Amino acid sequence: xxxxxPNPIALxxxxxxxxxxTTAPVGVEGFKFMSKFKxxxxxxxxxxxxxxxxxxxxxxxxxxxxxxxxxxxATKSLIEHGKYHVVIPTHDISALQSKxxxxxxxxxxxxxxNLESFDSVKSFCEEVEDWRGSKKIDRLVLGxxxxxxxLVEPQFTVDGHEKIMQVNYLSHYLMVSKxxxxxxxxPDPRVVTVGSITGLDxxxxxxxxxxxxDLMDLxxxxxxxxxxxxxxxxxxxxxAKAYEDSKLCCLLMSAxxxxxxxxxxxxxxxxxxxxxxxxxxxxxDGADKELYRRYMDVVTGGAGFVSETKAGQHLFQAIxxxxxxxxxxxxxxxxxxNKDESKYVGASGSDKDAxxxxxxxxxxxxxxxxxxxxxxxTTDVTGANWPKIKTVVSPCQTLKVIGAISKASIxxxxxxxxxxxxxxxxxxxRSRGGSALRPRSTRWLARC
Length: 448
Fold this sequence. Notes:
The protein has helices at 8-22, 45-55, 69-81, 93-99, 118-132, 163-179, 204-207, 219-222, 239-265, 289-300, 308-320, 363-366, 368-382, 397-420; strands at residues 59-64, 84-90, 108-112, 139-142, 190-194, 268-273, 330-333, 344-345. An 8-stranded mixed sheet has the order 3-2-1-4-5-6-7-8, with helices on both faces. α4 links the parallel β2 (84-90) and β3 (108-112). The chain contains 14 helices and 8 strands. It is an alpha/beta fold.
């Protein structure tokens, strides 16, 4: 006679009977492991309803520098695309609104912010956090910059820092630290920094443009970077070099933040060079636009310029395109060959997919030690507070031993990388050899 299959309920009852018998001396101690099971976060129905009403299925973008130039072109593209809601920090809301489509006000929100003031940046970030509710920030685009190459004397902000460096780099660094928490666990969060080819001091295109970006040993930052200290390296003032240094800082910021935060937070951090422009609004204080164009025609072979509209389209692609979601990449417009075509390539100039910042042919990115030091000293200058990284410790003794061995191996490898990155640049010296405030050349350069 065929036997009937075992009753599942009877098997479960038998299992619990055995468990109770084997753990009888300790009573309920055998079930204490169940106390470690955690429920998922509670869903706030009201917050979700508010988010749906405000944004629908649109992605949320915070975009500095969206009021003019390629930033304005990219912002208009984001708005017209219909998939984004753009928050625009600006010091002139009425002027910004006059440039944007009046019939699409449901797709953008201007907010008061002055990048010349840390307090203003903090207030803006607090307003964004309160306003967005439970909505995650999908993109943080750092595109604002100021450039005044003909200045002979430095200008200082209300915080006592040199104006170009604070607007272009320090305030953006502070903003990332304040808004990063609101980007975690998003579907495709990205921090996109608008870079400049002048920040790559060993590239062919930038090598003929002086003065060359060089942070030296960060002595200006180490000393607090407050008036009268006006340069990151502690030397005398050059407005053109202050701009180039600020862009180099932004590139290094993307590199070190990628290394420290990408794997832990899932936020992609990269930089984009949308192309070299010579538009009228980019020249201030008497800089000669036509002379600059002729000069850069020689450097780039006559094919290096893009229009403001084209640069804005390149920037939009870096924000929107799924293939630009890779972290730790310097997306660069490739003008070689056909000047009417462009594509995003790695900083190494390869036609293939973009390479890692650390794999790119740039001394700036290879010097990991400098990037790390810049990150730490900028935190001191700006007073930024970064989300703490929680270390998960295993209760297993074997895994603890393996972890300790792995940690030692990684530290040894990092030291080796840092030693190899100590590359000297021919014809240049990092030695001070005199006063901490050495005068510099004030040769001008238009923004690229």
